[in-house]
Design goal:
Layout lengths: L1 E5 L9 E9 L5 E5 L4 E8 L1 E6 L2 E6 L3 E4 L5 E5 L6 E8 L3 H7 L8 E2 L6 H12 L6 H17 L11 H18 L6 H8 L3 H12 L3 H16 L6 H7 L5 H12 L3 H11 L12 E5 L11 H4 L3
Antiparallel strand pairs: 1-2, 1-11, 2-9, 3-8, 4-7, 4-9, 5-6, 5-8, 7-10
Length: about 300
């Protein structure tokens, strides 16, 4: 049985939840070889399986856990005779790498034993339950994710790494603060890099490594998020456009539609028609998938959805 939530449009900077779920795998069920664009922690609840990462093969069972880091080629497979069941949480953000370092988990240390007395499984089940909420869902999920990472950090015998990541986070935070303060003006990526004291190429790599988006895409999405808040006020669409850095309302409308899937005027009308608790007022949205696994490993929905855990 598979129970899974996917969050397609996370909106935080420090830490975002991308997905979570629990599955009793079919014999031989596998994923990969492939890469992810975010961090993914699996906790084995029972049975056995294999995890291949960095050229090493790990035979894992109940009580073990493994990390998939962005851009790392991995492969994992359930045992044929006694297939594993596992819970997983996917996340990314500026603080993700540092929080994992605090827990002694990294690309160099991808396999570990949480020794959590079932607490991690319980937290994932709470996440799945909270994903149904119409109000308060996002802060609840984020709080549960922080608790999940805190449980990892408190496990006995943690060996922590201390690489140069903290300095990178400081550089990135400087650029993010610049965007948050000056997004309504004529910001450019070159200007962001100059004020942060960084090379433009290095700034791009920081955004991609820590946030999974380019500086330009982050700025566009930040402006659109601010526009969504202003569209709840009496300001006209043209006034909203100017307030978030677009002198041309038509250009703003094209950007808004590309990000949100609908023009700003229609997005505003949907708030009135469907109410603040509806999906229209929560642009991030979610997709829920519940299914029993078939022998071929394909779930209800698309093949991509069946293989993203």
């Amino acid at each position: 049985m598979l129970t899974k939530w996917v969050f397609p449009d996370p909106g935080n900077t420090d830490l975002n939840m991308y997905r979570c779920g629990i599955e009793d795998c079919e014999p031989g069920h596998s994923w990969g070889p492939g890469v992810r664009d975010h961090y993914l922690v699996h906790v084995v609840l029972g049975g056995f399986g294999e995890f291949r990462c960095g050229g090493q093969l790990h035979r894992l069972g109940r009580g073990d856990a493994f990390l998939i880091a962005p851009g790392e080629v991995v492969e994992y497979r359930a045992d044929v005779a006694d297939p594993w069941s596992y819970a997983w949480v996917g996340f990314h953000g500026l603080k993700a790498e540092g929080l994992l370092r605090e827990a002694g988990v990294s690309v160099r240390q991808p396999v570990f034993r949480p020794d959590d007395d079932g607490r991690l499984e319980a937290l994932v089940r709470e996440m799945l339950s909270a994903a149904d909420w119409k109000r308060g869902r996002d802060p609840q999920l984020l709080g549960l994710l922080y608790q999940f990472l805190a449980v990892l950090a408190r496990r006995p015998g943690v060996v922590r790494e201390d690489p140069q990541g903290r300095r990178q986070e400081e550089y990135l935070q400087r650029a993010l603060d610049d965007i948050a303060t000056n997004f309504a003006g004529p910001l450019t990526v070159a200007g962001l890099a100059r004020r942060a004291g960084l090379d433009r190429t290095y700034l791009y790599s920081l955004f991609m490594d820590h946030l999974g988006v380019s500086p330009k895409d982050y700025l566009v999405r930040f402006r659109v998020d601010q526009a969504c808040s202003l569209l709840r006020t009496p300001l006209s669409v043209a006034e909203v456009a100017r307030s978030v850095g677009y002198d041309d309302p038509q250009g703003f409308a094209r950007v808004f539609r590309r990000i949100r899937g609908t023009p700003p005027g229609a997005w505003r009308r949907s708030l009135t028609e469907e109410g603040p608790a509806s999906g229209a007022a929560t642009p991030s949205g979610t997709r829920r998938i519940r299914s029993s696994a078939s022998a071929s490993g394909i779930m209800t929905g698309t093949r991509e959805e069946s293989c993203d855990r």
